[in-house]
Description:
The chain has 71 residues and is mostly helical.
Amino acid sequence: PQSVEASYELGRACLRLQRPEEAIRAFEQVVRLQPDHADAHYKLALLYARMKAAGRVIEVAPPRAVARPAP
Length: 71
């Protein structure tokens, strides 16, 4: 999906269906579209930790710099 909302809901659905690899792809899409989407970052962190704990290899895209608004 090309919308933040659709990608986010797809990720949530994949989580409920216990499809972590697909959930990761969906939440990564959310972060690509909206880099400041805190909940998508949080869910990705949880998924990465779960996958690592399960001994599964995860291919992670290199982090991109995020512009921070001036105070």
